[in-house]
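Hi support team,

I'm opening this ticket because the web form for multi-chain structure prediction keeps timing out on my end. I have pasted the exact lines I submitted so you can reproduce it. The total is 1368 residues across two entries, so I didn't expect it to be a heavy job. Is there a limit I'm missing, or should I split the entries? Thanks in advance, R.K.
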Amino acid sequence: MAYIKRIIIVALLMLNQATVLKAEDGHALWLRNHSAIKVNISSTVRSATVDLAIAELRNGWLGKENMTIKLNLTKNPSIKRDGFQLEETAINARTELGLLYGTYELLRRQYLNLPQRNVISNPSYSRRILNHWDNLDGSIERGYAGSSIFWGNTANGLNITNQDREKWKAYARANASIGINGAVLNNVNASAKILSPAYLEKVKAIAESLRPYGIKTYLSVNFSSPVLIGKLKKADPLDPLVKQWWKDKAAEIYKLIPDFGGFLVKANSEGQPGPQDYGRTHVDGANMLADALAPFNGIVMWRAFVYNPSPEDRTKQAYKEFLPLDGAFKKNVILQVKNGPLDFQPREPFSPLFGAMSDTPVMPEFQITQEYLGASRQLVFLSTLWEECLNSDTYKNGKGSTVAACTDGSLSKTDFTAIAGVANIGNDVNWTGHTFAQANWYAFGRLAWNNKLESKTIAEEWLKQTFLDDKEKKTDANFIKTIQEIMLDSREAAVDYMMPLGLHHIFAEGHHYGPAPWFSNDKIRPDWTSVYYHKADTAGIGFDRTRSGSDAVDQYHEPLSSTFNSLSSCPEIYLLWFHHVPWSYRLKNGRDLWTELCIRYDHGVQQVRSFQKNWDKIKGSIDSERFAEVQSKLRTQSRDAQIWKDACLLYFQQFSRREIPFEIERPVHDLQSLKELTKSRDYE
Amino acid sequence: MAYIKRIIIVALLMLNQATVLKAEDGHALWLRNHSAIKVNISSTVRSATVDLAIAELRNGWLGKENMTIKLNLTKNPSIKRDGFQLEETAINARTELGLLYGTYELLRRQYLNLPQRNVISNPSYSRRILNHWDNLDGSIERGYAGSSIFWGNTANGLNITNQDREKWKAYARANASIGINGAVLNNVNASAKILSPAYLEKVKAIAESLRPYGIKTYLSVNFSSPVLIGKLKKADPLDPLVKQWWKDKAAEIYKLIPDFGGFLVKANSEGQPGPQDYGRTHVDGANMLADALAPFNGIVMWRAFVYNPSPEDRTKQAYKEFLPLDGAFKKNVILQVKNGPLDFQPREPFSPLFGAMSDTPVMPEFQITQEYLGASRQLVFLSTLWEECLNSDTYKNGKGSTVAACTDGSLSKTDFTAIAGVANIGNDVNWTGHTFAQANWYAFGRLAWNNKLESKTIAEEWLKQTFLDDKEKKTDANFIKTIQEIMLDSREAAVDYMMPLGLHHIFAEGHHYGPAPWFSNDKIRPDWTSVYYHKADTAGIGFDRTRSGSDAVDQYHEPLSSTFNSLSSCPEIYLLWFHHVPWSYRLKNGRDLWTELCIRYDHGVQQVRSFQKNWDKIKGSIDSERFAEVQSKLRTQSRDAQIWKDACLLYFQQFSRREIPFEIERPVHDLQSLKELTKSRDYE
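Hello R.K., no limit was hit. The queue was backed up. Here is the completed structure from your submission:
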């Protein structure tokens, strides 16, 4: 009997272990454990970073058994910055961090069965930075994956546990594996408290966890900090006391964090304080901070996201504000510019600032967190959106002056280049809420490293690493092909069910999740309402930004400005962005505008339904946990796409006064009930 | 200036009148005003009822101008009961009420452009009765169109206003126009108070309003009334004091209402008191009341809807209870039997009691109010359901012994026949909540008058009278054809998206609106749960009522009992009613049961979407008010059909363990959220 009992206990233990091993909670991201093969490693240099590279090689080696791989520091001029060279038996780099990056690339290639011989890879941007919009109380602005991993997790928000350090280490490792080398730890709508000694102590601790992985720490600063936490009466950037306060603060920071990266500043934007409060310019403000940081090689990332409650078209304002300041900034100042001239919409043309500045470095700001793209409920792979922006031709120096070339130093021959992504990371077990939101984090890192990568490659890499875990499954071509297609189609589907044909910013107030094309409020500035942007009336729909309208088209170089200006040559994906178009206007496919709008919205809904179907078809190819999670979220997305379609078509129909074409499905909601429903983000 | 001012005022007045004339609130039902042609009427008899006939002819005549039409009382033996004969220039009838019925039929035929020469029409049933489940506080059990038109509208519920009398008159007129001649004014779950002097005074007033239209008044009585409002200690039907109490009460009623119709009784059913409380039988109870009413020619309608918390299959219990009592009832007692053996489900086989009783009259009880068929939110035309029941062959006296024949006197050669419909009428302006619910009231009346009418005829009649109002529109064949098709398909669609293939009673608890196939509760009797009825398990689904199961099949005459008993011969519409069927069972179309179930549910959803599309296509054919109302309700129905499909497929999938076939759309809800959602009837 005792014998049998023992067998049962052993069996139960095994069962339990099997369950634990199989549970896929998404916490491992694209770095899931797999059984490694024995490898010998020799290195001419040792450091915390190189030790990490060695450990990763030991844990993840899938090459020849008992092979010896060398880690070499080299001065090979083909290798730039923290780039690296992979050889059959060696990783070569100029820096220790380059060795770590080379390690991750080598292991990725082994896992994906890609060749590794003579691969040289250099980063497109020097600084590849995540912006965390984390508040010091632990909440995250536009965060959909739980509370902050940095702040507020304990009563005073400053106590540090081993669990914190483990999380920060895992976070740093994930970032390093895709080449991210910087993190702004707090919200751009910054609390001045971040610069107080107590908080700086915590920043120091975080920086220590991130440092071995090559992640530099940055902070968002409140321009009024000298008043708010100092003892000064004002924060005027030309005031000597203010200058000194910032110099002292910089010294204090660098004493704690010698490799501190610098400041990110949102000034005179959406109510944040700034130099204009004292009659000074953005240049005055940025340069004052730059002077304080320069002795320590720190930088200032000054956000160009500014607009005033003026009658001027909001999308024109950043350009008008900053173009006159070109060349006046200190050498360690870089302008941080959102991909589009408005605000992270499902689709915008690129910001004209990318092609405008000649003597001021400009860095793109992408939004990884899905503020306007379905939060963590909807599967929307953003890589294609960023790819579209990076590949957009500004014509700054004639054809081929892409946004990528304007920002990665190709055109300006500078090495002071950077790119930022607003993080989608929180305390959720799987970091990002939606499993597929991990792909957006991954894609941002990969594009920041190599801005010529194609989204389809990124999707395939991510899918294989994230879902497939043995030789057999790695070759599950059907799974990869099916889900890669969903990912690549997902952003266009979202554009279709939310805002096709160049529509923009018709979101519900506040939560920015559902539709509210009807949103209008006399008590707030017009450019915070939806009707400001779509301008629907019985004649037509769209924002006239042509030369007869707001003339935003002329912020672009020729031939773009004329192309956008003319209704017939304007790309139809930007039609209602640049034109107020009659409902009866014939599109290139022969349909009138109203019919096309209806068909686009419906197509978006049908696309999500097809995603559902294709997802269901791959059941069994992956673990049941993440299968069920994504299946459930696609159901939500399907309902929400329907809500978008119904809300927009029923609302706009009041102006078009035309029938919804009978080839598409009818709305299943009433306009009035949708107005109620979408007030809260929690539809269900 | 004064002249212009006057013109403006006149114009505004005309505009206002036009608006009033055009506003279609549905209150006029199928009796909408239209401009009449002058007619002369001669009548050999005058009475309140004949005066109504004359007024209707004057207001609605569409025949030759200045023609003379005669109203004649006749003894023509081809005319039965309150039937009538239409001639070119006369309406002939045996009774004054027959003249009124002939008038409505004549006007209907003129309106519908049907021939009127030598039409003879006799009612299928002597008593054509609405059962109002109205409580004395004004609420209505299973009512979805506002509060009671009889009770509770004022503080004490007994005050009577002119508005009340106008409403009762309009109600009586609508009923008379379709041949209804009786109304039970209060809920079968009856308050004893209805028999108190104060309430009887109000019943008298209502009866006075209904009488000219030939509507007899009936009341539901509580079997314990002698205890509850008398001074007796018990209500034992064999107790002389109890007998006397009822005799006295009957005399009191008839003194107030000389043409009072009689009592409807729900006894020993779902907690109501009854003779079994004293060890007596249904016969003892019914006969005691029958004796009290007999001197005044009153009748007792004794409901057969009884079942006990016993292990016996609930659907078998009424038959088992009443068959042994056949022939023992007094001559003025009639058994009121619901169409199916369970409870007004979207589809049931007919109740075996219709074919069982030889010496006891039986009357069908249909439910007009949509307790289990979408309340007043869903467009479900019930005429096809009732037609299916009436045409079902019981084989009582061999082939051709339809439910209609078993109940309308064709088989038994009795004139004591009746039919009841549970009303869907309330204080809503349009009487029934949903405009198309008016069609169910209409169809019940028409079928009660002529149980051989086809639903397609009834739908066409109703549509033309309800929506089309001039010569041009009366010939709008496209509108009629399109919407008639929706109506005729609507019940089958509801069966598909709610309970296809013989599934039954998987509704949410209480409100009976949405799905809850998961509903189970140890604290209540099993036959009030859903799992009792579907019995889904990993082997299959359905209630085994074959000879190896509950043997309910043997309550039917041969060949039905054997047909139902065999899986291969059982009609597939009743499959899961009679059989527990393996998931892999092949249906006649070659599909396995699980696949067919999925496809049926999805088909129901697609059907509602097609109703939406077809409804939208007839925009402009009818008034905008009712167009918008129905459009909005079809949207709700579409969402709710989807909820039904998703809930049932996701729930049953847990047992079938099979994939939802990929040819249908995926669910867009999660099971867990649906369980929460459907707890309340108010999804939105």
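A quick check on our side: The interface with chain B takes residues 609, 612-613, 616-617, 619, 632, 634-635, 638-639, 642, 659-660, 662, 665-670, 673, 677, 684 of chain A (CB under 8 Å). Let us know if the file doesn't open in your viewer.
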